[in-house]
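User: My advisor, Dr. K., asked me to get a structural model of this assembly before our group meeting. I'm new to this, so sorry if the format is off. These are the inputs:
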Amino acid sequence: MSCWQTIQDYGLRSIGIGVNLLPKSDFTLCQQFTLIGSGLIWNVYFGALALALGFVFATSLALAKSARAPLIRKPAEWFIFIFRGSPLFIQFFLAYEALQMLPRAGITLFGLTIETSWTTRAWAGALFVLFLNTAAYAAEIFHGALRSIPKGDLEAADAYGISGWQKFRRIEWPTMLRLAWPAYTNEAIFLFHATTLVFFSSFPAFQQRGDALYYANYFADKTFNPFVPYPIVAFYFICLTLLLTFGFGLVNRYLNRHLPSNQKSRIRLRPQLIR
Amino acid sequence: MFASCADPKSLEGLTWLLCYLTSGKHLDFYWSFLTVLLLLAITAPVALAMGFGGAMAARSAFLPLRLIGKGYTSMVRGVPDIVFFLFFVIALDQAIEWSVHQIRCPDWTEPIRNGLEFRVCPQAKVPLSSSAQIWHQAYGFALAIFTFAIVFGAFAANVLYGAMNAVPRPQLETGEAYGMSQGQVFRRILLPQMWVYALPGLSNLWMILIKATPLLFLLGVKDIVYWARELGGSKTQAYEYPHPDWRLWYFLGLLVFYLLFTRLSELVLGRIGARLSRGQATAAGEAMRKAGA
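Assistant: The format is fine. Below is the predicted structure of the whole assembly, which you can bring to the meeting.
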């Protein structure tokens, strides 16, 4: 079987397109590359969606945390503390158990029946946890950036009579993003790394449609040889990291475009490992 | 544990709960919290030492050593740590068994990697299949500690390398001007001052290390996650203490444990930071000086 055939068979295996049966013996390097790469689709799915949704939520959380009214500030502080202070691993377990407790038949609300069984599936449940988690981490970054907006900028806005939504939209938010961007880039990278945890999160892989680590583990289990599949995963993630760094770097350039070159903030990769 | 718990089926309410929470398995569960603390207590200094070594190597004037140091520090950057955890444990295990095999069974003719199998001679199994259960557990735990130390050592090396470079250059030059040797400058000037720069990174690392401890479970150690799953699962009437699926409550307990632990660490690290900033030429040190004066 040629490698091209393998790619056609297994390239989209993780989303249920292609040959159903996974290879059982005589594993080729091509098969491992293809299947693990196909699993990566899920990692990208989790990472990209959680990041996009989390970004919006994180902005509101950061604003809530900077609010003066304790009724708004306190819940945001607690939310951030809980999600940053506990392991993502435990959060996954907890969410899974909690979602399992929802009634099987669905919830009836005002005559409408809401299905609940999909919430315990990885694509929804794990995504939800990742979304909340990244929102908490990003909110802390944004909150720090909000606090370090130069005083002069805000005073200038006041002097020009800009206030309220206008002030936020035109002064605070862009500056916050600009200041937070290097840290946020790291957050994004490590969120993508954290998507590998989904494999262990007890959210089951439905019909062997798993993420990159699922297939890597499959191969490692079958061949008793970790020296091929895990480096493949590592390779894919290094590529992903480089891609992310590049993309976020472009945005960073855009955010800093008005500044003289010696004041531009540069992105530095910082270790953040597990959450 | 208590005499009144002899017949759990007859108990009700609070006494039942008390007996339930002090059953033998629950005591194992409480001990496993100590396992986590033990892992932290061993890993943190070892990782710090490895990080220190890595940072020193990365600063070395000798090229091969510098390459090793740099390679070590950048090793964990692009790759998810989980991959390392999974990879290292198996790789280490196989490496150890392979070397023992070479020593103990030099005339073993069959190939070790035979198709899909990894087979060494029975004398080379680590630990020997005849040894007691406790040794298997200890071996697994040791492998886990080593893996943690390598991965976190790389991160610590990153932080310490940055901190060593952050110490103001004139300070070192002053030392040289007084006629100190390179070693003396390092010991007397660089080393005492670098910690204040390293502390934010190291505290971050400590928090991450705390939050990485549930991964012990993945490495096959019977840690708190293992017991929470074990004890929380629904128990039928065949068990002494039948109950429905309570895993949610057990994980909630773990969550609270971690929250308390990270909060406590934050407070302690804040104090250490204040202590280290005293008399330093940093913004925090300056603020303290002004407040004191």
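One thing worth pointing out at the meeting: The longest helix of chain A spans residues 29-66.

User: Perfect, thanks a lot.
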